[in-house]
Design brief:
The protein contains five helices and twelve strands. The protein is α+β, with helices and mostly antiparallel strands. The strands form two sheets. The chain has a six-stranded mixed β-sheet. Helix 3 packs parallel to helix 4.
Length: about 260
């Protein structure tokens, strides 16, 4: 079983790359973030032409999340929005059942700066995630929650930790909340597969940061601990950060036996 997550930074701009990705990897689940389309503009027909159905929450110009799976195993029992989030209109959470897996695609707010209301909203969102995932953990289905968390969990998940002192993405309150999310019974799949590796999923467009590998690991694939023994591999497809009109994120892929 192949699961993937990708912040595409505009599904309109990146649709050809998404279709290329589906054709190349044929994932059983693909979580998308920053789709940046309205409900009516979501490319349902184009994805169906590639053999995929989608459960999505589309908020227009900003944010937007989706769960894709093959039409024969289309997402169902869809929940849109996260109870307790500060700005539901931003379209940052969608969950659905795919096969025997409960899947959530998430785009955590950036937070901007530590002394801003947006940062407090980020912490609130993470608290709401923990509460929802604790509820899902008590259900019958194993959980896969993936997306852009906008948190670098450890110092090795950024290219230069000293540059991030006193900023978002690496602050103690953010990391503590990710600890609390993992404590609901989830594993960081990349660390299960690659306990000692350094791997980034995001590189700013500016100053050749991708080519210098000045990146961050802020896109995560978390799964129920009972699925841990089934992890075969978890890696980053850097090729989709290259080429024509790339997103500033690369897809993260997780294979389960």
């Amino acid at each position: 079983m192949l699961l993937a997550t990708w912040n595409v930074n505009s599904l309109t701009a990146r649709l050809p790359r998404v279709l290329e990705f589906l054709g190349t990897h044929a994932p059983d689940v693909l979580c998308l973030q920053e789709t940046k389309v309205g409900e009516a503009a979501f490319p349902t027909e184009a994805l169906a032409g590639a053999g995929y159905a989608a459960a999505h929450l589309s908020g227009g110009r900003w944010a937007g999340v989706a769960v894709l799976s093959p039409i024969g195993a289309a997402p169902f029992d869809v929940v849109r929005g996260l109870p307790g989030e500060a700005r539901a209109e931003e379209a940052r959470w969608v969950e659905a059942t795919v096969g025997d897996l409960r899947v959530a695609s998430v785009y955590v707010t950036n937070g901007r700066a530590l002394d801003t209301p947006t940062y407090e909203e980020k912490l609130t969102f993470l608290d709401s995630m923990r509460a929802r995932l604790a509820t899902l953990a008590s259900g019958d289905l194993p959980v896969f929650v993936a997306g852009d968390f906008n948190i670098a969990y450890e110092d090795r998940d950024v290219w230069d930790p000293a540059l991030f002192v006193g900023t978002t993405h690496t602050s103690r309150p953010e990391r503590e909340r990710l600890d609390a999310i993992l404590a609901t019974g989830l594993l960081d799949a990349f660390r299960v597969a690659e306990p000692d590796a350094t791997g980034f999923t995001y590189w700013d467009y500016r100053a050749g940061m991708f080519h210098k590998n000045m990146g961050m690991r802020i896109d995560l694939a978390l799964l129920s601990a009972r699925l841990g023994p089934r992890v075969v591999r978890c890696g980053i497809d850097r090729d989709f950060r290259k080429g024509l009109k790339p997103s500033d994120h690369a897809p993260l892929l997780l294979e389960l036996a």
